[in-house]
Amino acid sequence: GLIANYQNTVLMAYGEVDNAMAAYKGARAQTALLAESVEAARRAAEIAAKQYGDGVTDYTRVLNTQQALLAAEANLVTARALIAENLVAIYKALGGGWQVREGQEFLPETVLAEMAYRTDWGDLLQTRNDTTN
Fold first, then answer.
1. In sequence order, which residues have a C-beta less than 8 Å from that of residue 44 and are 6 or more positions away?
2. Which contacts qualify for 71-77: CB closer than 8 Å, 24 or more apart?
3. pLDDT tens column, 28-44
4. N or C terminus of the chain: which is more exposed, having fewer CB within 10 Å?
5. Rg of the Cα atoms in the chain
6. Buried b (16+ CB within 10 A) or exposed e, 48-70
7. The pTM is what?
């Protein structure tokens, strides 16, 4: 009856939280490994450029190492995005943790003013939809 239904709901919620946390942990571990991969690819690209400068290798090797570096960096960016996605999944599985901010700024006015002063972002800093034209 009702108790079995409640127990089922609790078990499903626990499973969602557990799965989200495992995915988050896995994404963080993968990101750490990919960061090391980027550093190794960066070193390889630097070595290839030096070897080319010294006349030891041709430019194809330089291009290949730069291409490998770009691929490693793209993989790292994807993994970092996965961390964020999994963190959102954890919050969602735990029942939310965020509020709809209708009519409220995400950043304090002081921060927005400082950003407007330091940058040339113009209308990009305007977050409210003005429909009073």
1. 65, 68, 69
2. 71/41, 72/34, 72/37, 72/38, 72/40, 72/41, 73/38, 73/41, 75/34, 75/37, 76/31, 76/34, 76/35, 76/37, 76/38
3. 999 999 999 999 999 99
4. C
5. 24
6. bbeebeeeebeeebbeebbebbe
7. 0.65
Q: How far apart are CA 48 and CA 92, in angstroms?
A: 46
List the structure tokens of 60: 């194809």
Please give the DSSP secondary-structure letter assigned to residue 106. S
Residue type, 119: T
For the stretch 74-92, pLDDT in tens is 999 999 999 999 988 888 8
Output the six-digit token pair for 52.
């080319």
Q: Give the burial class of 116: count Cβ atoms within 10 A of its Cβ; 0-12 exposed, 13-18 middle, 19 or more buried.
A: middle
Rounded Cα–Cα distance for residues 45 and 66 (Å) = 6
The CA-based angle 97-95-18, given to 5 degrees, is 110
Separation CA 42–CA 50 (nearest Å): 12
